[in-house]
Automatic annotation (TrEMBL):
This is PIWL2 protein. PANTHER family: EUKARYOTIC TRANSLATION INITIATION FACTOR 2C. Gene3D superfamilies: 3.40.50.2300. It holds the Pfam family Piwi. InterPro entries: Piwi (IPR003165), RNaseH-like_sf (IPR012337). Residues 178-247 form the Piwi domain. One of its GO terms (molecular function) is nucleic acid binding.
Amino acid sequence: LVLLVPELTFLTGLSDLRKNSRILKDIMWEMVQSPQQHYQRLTSLLRRIRDTPDASRELERWGLRLDTDIYRTQGHILPVERINLRHRSFLPADDVGWHREVAREAPIAAVSFNSWLLVYPKRLQQLAKDLLGAMRSSSGAMGIQVGQPTVQELRDDRIESYVRSIQSSLGSQDKVQMLLCIIPSGRDDIYGAIKKLCCVQTPVPSQVINAQSLMGHPGKIRSVVQKVLLQINCKLGGQLWGVDIPL
């Protein structure tokens, strides 16, 4: 048994910072650095150690000497792999990302979903309408057909309301291809309950969207909806893109 003195302990992690987007953005900027930025920060640290007498003496006491530049070697650069979509192939940009291409063209295999369920609380009604409109406007270029969903508008955003509504809808319809739920921001408990229901108790592909991610300018909503459509296509057995095998 280990007894910890509360006054001498502290929590670790970022749980409280997730709600502060500005601090989170600063942290990510510190973590995601380019190779050139890594190099500059390392050489800056080495110069500071060299120019600080106390640090230099401490290193000398250990018999250590740090060069003011890091070791350089010639790296092996792999050739760029070609990404294949249904109608064309392309080479990724320098950032090694191809989201724009897969969001504007048809994937290798697209699965249309015509029998699906949309669940949201009444206070998020307008957000659900915006989501549905963005899905229809974005799906055509991606080669995915989105049918009219069965809509379940909840009176409140309690866990029980979500679970009862989903169970009732899944039990009354012959086959539901996909369940899409919009949940209020910061409600991990609702997310967990929906996933437990859809993965364990009544298996059905599901997509849960945080309401916060749909709030903002139309460009942001369109970008989120494109990613959602790609995820749904994969969950229904579609194939987004491929590479030449063998590499």
